[in-house]
Design a protein that fits this description.
The chain folds into two domains: about 15-40; about 80-194, Lipocalin, CATH 2.40.128. The chain contains two helices and eight strands; from the N terminus they run H-H-E-E-E-E-E-E-E-E. It has helices at about 10-35, 40-45, and strands at about 80-90, 100-110, 115-125, 135-140, 145-150, 160-165, 175-180, 185-194.
Amino acid sequence: MRPVRVYKKSKKTTVQLTSLLDLLFVMIFVSLIQQKDIPTESKQKTEPKKAPEVVEEIKTPKPKTQVVEQIKEKPKIEKRKYSISAIFHFHPTAANPKLPSGTYMMQGSFDEKTRELHLGGVSWIKRPQGYDMVPLSGKIENSETLFKGRIDFPGCKIFNLKRTEVLDNSPISGKWKGVYDCSQGLTGLTLTIQ
């Protein structure tokens, strides 16, 4: 029989194999790290962190519109004629204290265009003996505060009244106070236009 040779594995081969396995393990580990992109301390120090993206809303400017004011003509207010009712109240004055007082109703018309007011007596409310109703014809000034005119009656001349109170019935409604001059002398007058 022939002797069998027994070969002994050398330690050198085992060491080499272990080293190769270690190297393979390291390479797999590095590969996995690169795939997962796990930040390491050195990576964090060299690469700045990215800020989250800010998406700005782009606003389109609204078109500017220019308002053009048109000058409108004022509507022409048609001047009217008004039917007027009034109360004529005459009374004494400081210059003529002995006169009696009396009151009567009047009717007439006011023309806003010409500013003329014509009033005539209609009925007595309180009539002193010997007195008659007198008509009034005159113009009311644009300010609607003065009413002047003549009294078309024998022995009478002018009247002059100032508005002291305003009512809403017509442009000239209100209380008008002043005097008129007739044969009995200067007489106080309060005309209430309704």
